[in-house]
Design brief:
Blueprint lengths: L1 H23 L7 H17 L5 H51 L8 H102 L15 H162 L5 H16 L7 H6 L1 H7 L8 H20 L1 H14 L1
Helix pairs in contact: 1-3, 2-3, 2-5, 3-5, 3-10, 4-5, 5-6, 8-9
Length: 477
């Protein structure tokens, strides 16, 4: 019993040192390689000691598996605690994010709908003012075009007036010459009339003198040729001159009347044209003055509208700057919120990656534990049969097989099973072992009792490891 207790103490010391070394490491570093190395070491130990020290090696490997299972159980529990704490932290962060969104999220934004209505009203007013301004500009263009048309008409009429005045000025000397010729003709007519009167007087005097001469009583007879009749000649001359005078008078009167009619017609037509031109000039002057007044009024109205438009644009620009100033910090706040969301999302993704890695490690540990459990169960059955067969010197192969089955059942039931065939072959050995027995003869029974006691002590030392799979299953569930 002394060598086995020393071996157990050494193994427990080694396991404590390995556990202390493993506890010094971070839990995230404790991966499946430790368990794999421990399993490999256990397997190598089993292979190396299979020839000479089969029972000791099997016990050592069983103890190592139990310690390893306990270590894996502790690590798995710590990983599960870490996962639960990370889930709680994730839930807490999600709750904080939800509360922050409820406090400062989109629901807490300011309502700018009334500003939108006022902005729409102001935009409509600006549009109406722009339309009115365009109408006024069109009216101004139309009035400017009409003013230009009237100006061209005025210039043409003014040119016609100047032409008429020039014609009148050219006709005035003709009128003067006609008046002079008329006065000359009148003077000639008067002089001819006076001459005719004088001739009539002279003729009457001559007639009277001749009548007085012919009225005397003296008869003078002259035997001569009869003379010419002077009276007849005078009458003929008078008639001829009268005809010439009458003819000249008629010609002069007809010429004078024709000229006077022409001049009067020209004067009348020029007077009418002058009056019409004066009327048109007065009308155009009145129209020009009215258009000038309208133009001045429209220009003043345009100036007022432009000043109003500038005032409204200035006011709206100020309001727009204020709104943009309000939008700037809101955009900055939104950008900061987005940055925080991205950082929290990255943290969440990182935690999710850690969680997935932990789940993968847990699955790997679970597979290793299942494999270790399967190996422990198979190796424990083989170890029990080998010990009873090795120490039962007087037993047969059948008793060793029965002892092997009894040993396997005694390991799983904490050393309380009995080897049936071994007890049948050796009563002394059964009394020495208590409830467990090994096969063999008298001396072999004593050795079997020793082996059974050591087996019971090893089973008592591994009571925790026998319960470890159940505890692992409880923590796993």
């Amino acid at each position: 019993m002394a060598p086995s207790s020393k071996g157990l103490k050494l193994r427990s010391a080694r396991h404590k040192a390995a556990r202390a070394e493993c506890s010094k490491r971070p839990r995230c570093v404790r991966n499946s390689w430790d368990s794999l190395t421990h399993i490999r070491r256990g397997r190598s130990v089993r292979k190396d000691g299979a020839e000479g020290h089969t029972a000791v090696t099997l016990r050592r490997s069983a103890v190592l598996r139990g310690v390893r299972a306990e270590n894996l159980n502790d690590r798995l529990a710590s990983y599960l605690d870490k996962v639960r704490s990370l889930e709680r932290e994730n839930a807490r962060l999600e709750q904080l994010i939800r509360e922050w969104y409820q406090k400062q999220g989109p629901t807490g934004r300011k309502d700018y709908s009334h500003y939108y209505t006022t902005i729409e009203d102001l935009q409509n007013q600006i549009l109406t003012a722009a339309v009115e301004t365009n109408k006024i500009l069109l009216d101004l263009d139309n009035t400017r075009m009409t003013a230009e048309d009237f100006r061209t008409k005025y210039e043409t009429e003014y040119g016609l007036r100047q032409n008429v005045e020039a014609d009148i000025n050219t006709l005035r000397p003709l009128l003067d010459s006609l008046t002079l010729s008329r006065t000359d003709l009148e003077m000639q007519f008067e002089s001819l009339k006076e001459e005719m009167i004088n001739l009539k007087k002279d003729h009457e005097e001559d007639m009277k003198s001749l009548q007085t001469q012919s009225s005397g009583d003296v008869n003078v007879e002259v035997n001569a040729a009869p003379g010419e009749d002077l009276l007849k000649k005078l009458n003929d001359m008078r008639q001829e001159y009268e005809q010439i005078i009458q003819k000249n008078r008629e010609e002069v009167e007809s010429w004078y009347e024709s000229k006077m009619e022409e001049v009067s017609q020209q004067v009348h037509s020029s007077g009418q044209e002058l009056e019409s031109s004066n009327q048109q000039i007065s009308v155009l002057r009145r129209d020009y003055q009215s258009l000038e007044i309208e133009l001045q009024s429209e220009l003043s109205r345009v100036g007022a509208l432009q000043s109003n438009l500038e005032d409204t644009e200035r006011r709206y620009n100020m309001q727009l700057q204020q709104i943009q100033g309000m939008i700037g910090p809101l955009e900055e706040e939104l950008a900061s919120i987005r940055c925080e969301m991205e950082s929290q999302n990255e943290e969440y993704k990182m935690l999710l990656g850690i969680k997935t890695r932990l789940e993968q490690e847990i699955a790997q540990y679970r597979a290793l534990l299942n494999e270790g459990q399967h190996g422990i169960s198979t190796s424990q059955g083989g170890a029990g049969g080998g010990s009873s067969g090795g120490h039962g010197h007087g037993g047969t192969s059948g008793s060793s097989a029965q002892g092997g089955s009894g040993g396997g059942s005694s390991w799983c039931s904490r050393g309380r099973s009995s080897g049936g065939s071994g007890g049948k072959t050796s009563g002394g050995g059964g009394g020495g072992c208590g409830k467990a027995s090994g096969g063999g003869g008298g001396s072999g029974g004593g050795e079997g009792g020793k082996g059974c006691l050591s087996r019971s002590s090893s089973s008592h030392s591994q009571s925790g490891s026998c319960e470890s799979p159940g505890s692992f299953r409880r923590s796993e569930h």
